[in-house]
Amino acid sequence: MSLREEILEASKDILIKDGFGKMSMRRIARRADVTATSIYLYFKNKDDLLLTLIQESIDDLKAALEDVIDPSKDFIQQLEDMARVYIRFALNHPKEYEIIYMVRPEEMPKYPREKFNEVRSAYELLADIIDRGRKENLIEVDDPLISAYTIWAQIHGVVSVIINKRLDTRIPYDKFIDQAVDHIIKGFIIHKTPA
């Protein structure tokens, strides 16, 4: 692991455990077992470090989602693939996931405007698939982007229950995920009755 990666890992631990307000360069240096001045070789300040953590986490999630897109698959399978990859990313990279979605906005430095477009582009991947389903008359939605956020909110709820250890111990989490994904996707599908 490079020095930069060690600094980022130490920063993730402190950020998630104690919050941005208690994340200082000295604490990061102690955790990473480096000098505080060495951190400045890679990051201008604490804000730059946080924005880097968020950016890299978003990039990793977006890359995972892009890898699973396959226009040759049917609409429903694409939605399911996106949902499952999203959940897998969150469960395999809980620190990164928490940094993307659970850092409180009031603790964050001002997020550069151009970066918001990159964040939105992850939702637009899902919105594009939903728009395809709309054009094929498989779903009835007014705004694919709103629908993408609605699906994300439901999947985020599923992930949060597991990550925060709130799932009833009698329920196997793999079955919970399977059923949750199935219900979320079926909620968007038009069920046509025979004429």
Low-confidence spans: none
Number of helices: 9
Q: What is the H-and-E element order? A: HHHHHHHHH
The helicity comes to 55-70%
- Largest beta-sheet characterization: none
- Give Rg in angstroms: 19 Å
Mean pLDDT: 86
Summarize this structure briefly:
This protein is an all-alpha fold and 195 residues long.
Provide a descriptive summary of the structure in words:
This protein has 195 residues and is mostly helical. It has two domains: 1-43, Homeodomain-like (Arc Repressor Mutant, subunit A, Orthogonal Bundle), CATH 1.10.10.60; 46-186, Tetracycline Repressor, domain 2 (Orthogonal Bundle). It is 69% helix and 0% strand. It has nine helices and no strands. The chain has helices spanning 3-18, 25-32, 36-39, 46-68, 75-92, 94-102, 113-135, 144-163, 173-186. Helix 1 crosses helix 6 and helix 8 runs antiparallel to helix 9. The longest helix has 23 residues, at 46-68. It is elongated, with a radius of gyration of 19 Å. The mean pLDDT is 86.
